[in-house]
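TASK: fixed-backbone design
INPUT:
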């Protein structure tokens, strides 16, 4: 089990929160909560050791396309593929009203 932390530039925080996915389903859950303006903080709790670079690249690709809202994101991973991670994050952004 590893705990990884990442930070990216961001816009303003959203007003709401979102929870998507479910660890019990065998992939991951993502909790998105308002953060400090200008900063997106992500903490990943993963069962896959040695995957920090994979997570870093995934987040860089996702956030180069858009400026994310200022959030504190908690990800609880149980070996999800990058496609599932992206899907869950996009679901969370959609719930917050940020496309």
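OUTPUT:
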């Amino acid at each position: 089990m590893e705990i990884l932390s990442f930070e990216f530039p961001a816009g303003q925080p959203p007003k709401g929160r979102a929870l998507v996915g479910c660890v019990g389903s065998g992939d991951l859950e993502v909790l998105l909560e308002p953060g400090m303006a200008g900063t997106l903080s992500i903490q990943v709790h993963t069962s896959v050791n040695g995957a920090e670079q994979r997570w870093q690249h995934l987040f860089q690709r996702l956030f180069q396309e858009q400026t994310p809202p200022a959030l504190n994101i908690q990800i609880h991973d149980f070996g999800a593929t990058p496609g599932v991670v992206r899907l869950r994050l996009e679901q969370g952004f959609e719930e917050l009203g940020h496309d």
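COMMENT: The chain has a mean pLDDT of 90.
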